[in-house]
Amino acid sequence: MKKFYLLDTNVISEIRKPSPHQNVVLKFMKNKNFSDISAITWAESLTGLKRMPEGKKKEALSTFYNEIIYEQFEIIPFDQHAATIYSDLYPKLESIGKLPPEFDLQIASIAIANNMILVTRNTKDFAQISSFSNLMLENWWEE
């Protein structure tokens, strides 16, 4: 089944919080079967996990990532098509002095390459990318 949403790292982090934003939780539950994550989001999540000290919190987060995220979502790679989009966008954004963080540009390129809506809290971070591409954005924190 073709998925519609590519969840940014901040969405995954939000649903794991002790008191997550209710709108994000509702939209996540409603759309989880229509959502995937990027390899970049997976890498960011695992890196954060591996940097944590050993303990119950790390064990619970590891279980969450392995049994919920990894099992329920396809991990979309940064492939040749996404890399080509990235290489087209990078010099355009650089020329206007609006180069976003590298991971953000990679995640956006994956969303564009797969014709997916990028779900993120940081829509401002991706606004310049949208002005040079067909990147579609949604902010599930907004009511």
Your description of this structure?
- The chain has 143 residues and is α/β, with parallel strands linked by helices.
- The protein is globular.
- Strands 3-2-1-4-5 form a five-stranded parallel sheet.
- Helix content is 59%, strand content 10%.
- β4, α7 (123-131) and β5 (136-138) form a beta-alpha-beta unit.
- The two termini are 28 Å apart.
Mean pLDDT: 93
Output the helix-strand order.
Answer: EHHEHHEHHEHE
Q: What does the largest sheet look like?
A: 5 strands, parallel
Spatial sequence of strands, sheet with the most strands: 3-2-1-4-5
Helix content: 55-70%
- Number of H- or I-type helical stretches: 7
The proportion of strand residues reads 5-15%
Protein structure class: alpha/beta
Summary tags:
143 residues; alpha/beta; five-stranded parallel β-sheet; 7 helices
Topology summary:
Elements: E1 5-7, H1 9-16, H2 22-31, E2 35-38, H3 39-51, H4 56-72, E3 75-76, H5 80-95, H6 102-113, E4 117-119, H7 123-131, E5 136-138
Parallel strand pairs: 1-2, 1-4, 2-3, 4-5
Helix pairs in contact: 3-4, 5-6
Compact summary:
With 143 residues, this protein is an alpha/beta fold.
